[in-house]
From TrEMBL:
Pfam families: 4HBT_2. It comes from Bradyrhizobium archetypum. This is Acyl-CoA thioesterase. Gene3D superfamilies: Hotdog Thioesterase (3.10.129.10). GO terms for molecular function: fatty acyl-CoA hydrolase activity. It comes from the Bacteria. InterPro entries: 4-hydroxybenzoyl-CoA_TE, HotDog_dom_sf.
Amino acid sequence: METDATYRGTVYPWQCDHVGHMNIMWYVGKFDEANWNLFARLGLTPSYLRISGRGMAAVQQNITYKRELLAGDIVEVKSRLLEIRDKSIRFVHEMRNAETGEIAATCESVGVHLDRQARRSIAFAPAIRDSAMRYLEPAMA
């Protein structure tokens, strides 16, 4: 199920490299911001993470760059949950140039749910798991 954008922003000139394209560090940063919006939709809100002593850690991230983004381009990221397991989730972000609709990059990631004090992975609470199940891609549900 595709959802509303998990990130919207602009490419600023200072985010561009010496050849005029948005530098890869900024792609990663914008995808990271999309992560937290996706997580909040699943119930992994900042309040939940703080109060419960839980966290999320990226354990794998694969980025594909398709089209360059330039200073002034408007960026939109949409995210989809692909899989939820006992302690981990797999999801994908699609970054587009919002004006042209062209896909600029995709990022598939695996995140692990953590007990921050024990510094170990831990199962998702049933409420989080139930919430996430509503966001799974139809073929995965």
